[in-house]
Amino acid sequence: MIELTVYGNLSTTWFHTSIRILVRLAQQDGYISSNAMSEELGIDASFIRKVLNPLMKENLVTRASGRYGGYQLAKPPNTISLFEVYQALVNNALDTKRAEQDYTSVALSRILSETEQEFTKVLRRHMLDELYELK
Fold first, then answer.
1. pLDDT the model gives residue 11
2. Predicted TM-score (pTM) of this structure
3. CA pair distance 41, 9, nearest whole angstrom
4. How far is the C-alpha of 102 from the C-alpha of 80, rounded, in Å?
5. Helix (H, G, I), strand (E, B) or coil at 12
6. What's any one GO cellular component for it (predicted)?
7. Nearest C-alpha neighbor of 78 from the set 16, 21, 12, 132
8. Which of the four pLDDT bands, split at 50, 70 and 90, describes residue 1?
């Protein structure tokens, strides 16, 4: 038996949505609510909150409660790499499962691992502030 890593709810939708949310937060002075982001981005507010949870766990985003609360970046956008965003989502979605050691499973696992290594190398080189124009 070998261990295969399955990325649960991590998909391109989650990653793309998290980047769009973080870009919006980077452009905001102060806090912005999930409802306001929902209206601006055209994404359901409950999905925005779901995506924000792992980003808060990894201290990329902070939240304030109350009438004037909402979300904001926990650190400057030029210090947040796209890899950090990816890693926050992966950490939240990992599910290691045991699988049969058939040739196809082993070969595919190696290929996917190699692909992820190259993908994360590229993500490490790029920061959040590259994805939007400064106002």
1. 64
2. 0.79
3. 21
4. 40
5. helix
6. cytosol
7. 132
8. very low
Q: Band the pLDDT of 8: cuts 50, 70, 90.
A: very low
Distance (Å, rounded) from C-alpha 64 to C-alpha 48? 15
Please choose, from the candidates 123, 104, 103, the residue with its C-alpha nearest in 3D space to the C-alpha of residue 115.
123
Would you mind telling me the total number of residues written for the chain in this entry? Answer: 135
CA 71, CA 63: separation in Å to the nearest integer? 5
Average pLDDT over residues 17-42: 96
Structure tokens that stand for 59 in this block: 């201290």
pLDDT band of 49, cuts 50, 70, 90: very high
Residue 76: is it exposed, middle or buried by C-beta count within 10 angstroms (0-12/13-18/19+)?
A: exposed
CATH architecture for segment(s) 2-131: Orthogonal Bundle (1.10)
Residue 55 parent element (H or E): helix 45-57
Domain regions of the chain by residue span = 2-131
Name the one residue in this structure whose structure tokens are 């209206």.
39
Phi, psi of 25 (to 5 degrees): -65, -35
